[in-house]
Amino acid sequence: MEPNSQRKIIESLISQLEGNRFQDFCDRLGAELYPNDYHPVRAGGPHGDTKNDGYCPQARIFFAAHATRGETASKTRAKLTSDLEGCLKQHRDVRVWRYLTNETLRGEVDQYIDNELRPRYPEVTIEVWGHKRLADEIAKFDIPTMISKRYWTSPSVQPSEPTHQYACGLIHLNPRPQGFHCCAPANSCGTYSRIRMTTST
Q1: Range of 30's domain?
Q2: Which residue from 49, 48, 74, 47 is spatially nearest to 64, judged by alpha carbons?
């Protein structure tokens, strides 16, 4: 498949992920980007996730994963501020704080980050990775190797199913001679219940 087409498909798939599915996707991506450092975190007990959705204790990178698609700008600003300030209050030596989301942030939210949050916390590198940046990172990977590793499969894919599956969150692309098709349950991937693409020659 042509790389640009692959990246656009991945962008679309990421934008469809919500809630825990987006969080799970971010955990799998973090584990792939930082295989010897990334630690996923889950909420539990009276303190929840301590404003930390996953982190790299060696590199001191902390992640906040939040699907903002369809959310108001004011709600996104409040979430950003709460997660960042809560993380800085509860964790030591935060060098990079990375906000992962499933869309491109609205201009007023991006402006708020640059005009207010970054000057307020100059000792921390504040980054935002939307669906396009996440897709760019995935596109750098060796996709055939991921397929052979059954990378990003979900519990809905049983070991007995034919061939290896390549999946982005809840989407499963099943290699076939004529291309690819989505083999996830029809009710689990919305408009992507069936996708066919022509492989590159």
Answers
A1: 3-7+18-139
A2: 49
